[in-house]
Amino acid sequence: MGHYQISWPRGNRVATAFDIHPTPTGLNARTNIYYLETPDLGRTWFTVDGTQVRPPIRWDEHPSLVRDFRKDGLLVYLKDLQFDSEGRPIIAFLASRGYQSGPSNGSRTLWTARWNGGAWEYSRITTTDHNYDHGSLYVVSDQHYRYTSPTGPGPQRHATGGEIETWETFNAGADWQLTYQHTRNSTNNHTYVRRPLNYHPDFCAFWADGNSFAPSPSRLYFANTRGEVYQLPETMTSDQARPVLIKALP
Question: Are strands 75-83 and 65-67 parallel, antiparallel or unpaired?
């Protein structure tokens, strides 16, 4: 029943978090979070507390279970996975009351689940208006995290994406604050912010835009750690071209 999966490496470890699609609803009922990691390219697998398990995972009450969100009546949409300086995982995810888009299921809530060495700790980032508002988590230090995602309402309300914003915590998730509004007054929704592997401060996030309700052009953007945003040229007439600065420093 497992499906949607996020993963990230740290040294010789590869960690993964995934969900289940319980019957009879299947795809539209994705819920729960599970976590496993391997130190040897998949030959052996362990839970977060070091318990060795043997895949495949065939039942939902498994030692790899992070939390049973099905008992809470919540769906789960996985967003990102990172580590702190001690190699403890931090999972970013969205919790929702239903799979249907629109206001009927209320606000969707973005969270992190952080392993503290003995238990999972949960931190509420903010709310958004669609289950597929995908973003990326940045662990600057053990106290300082950033989460960049389309959490701002976009021109296509209650649809995938919106305006790109960055939320930050300076106390390991005890509270979060909005620090950057990367896009404003956009024509189309932006979404699916991705963090490049081994990113450079001048290219820490990239994403695309598009009309969520109709066919439209889709443009590519990237941001730096200072909050500036550039758009890649829509048309190139040579091998190289300069990106267009669309949001400068305040």
Answer: unpaired
Q: Are the C-beta atoms of residues 51 and 62 closer than 8 Å to each other?
A: no
**The residue to which tokens 């896009």 are assigned:** 183
CA distance 240 to 119: 50
- pTM (whole model) above 0.90: yes
Q: What is the pLDDT of residue 28?
A: 87
Residue type, 45: W
Q: Which residues pair with 100 in a beta bridge?
A: none
**What is the block-wise mean pLDDT of the chain (250 residues), using blocks of 10 residues?**
88 96 84 97 97 91 94 96 97 96 91 97 97 97 97 95 97 95 95 94 97 95 95 94 85
The SS3 assignment for 43 reads coil
d(CA 211, CA 207): 14
SS3 call for 191: strand
CB-facing half-sphere around the CA of 149: CA atoms within 13 A: 31
For 174, the domain range is 2-247
**Is residue 104 within 8 Å of 98, Cβ to Cβ?**
yes
Identify which of 138, 118, 128, 183 has the alpha carbon closest to the alpha carbon of residue 160: 128
Are 29 and 21 in contact, with CB atoms under 8 Å apart? yes
Number of domains, the chain: 1
- Looking up residue 152, the CATH number of its domain turns out to be 2.120.10
Question: Which two three-digit tokens encode residue 110?
Answer: 């973005």
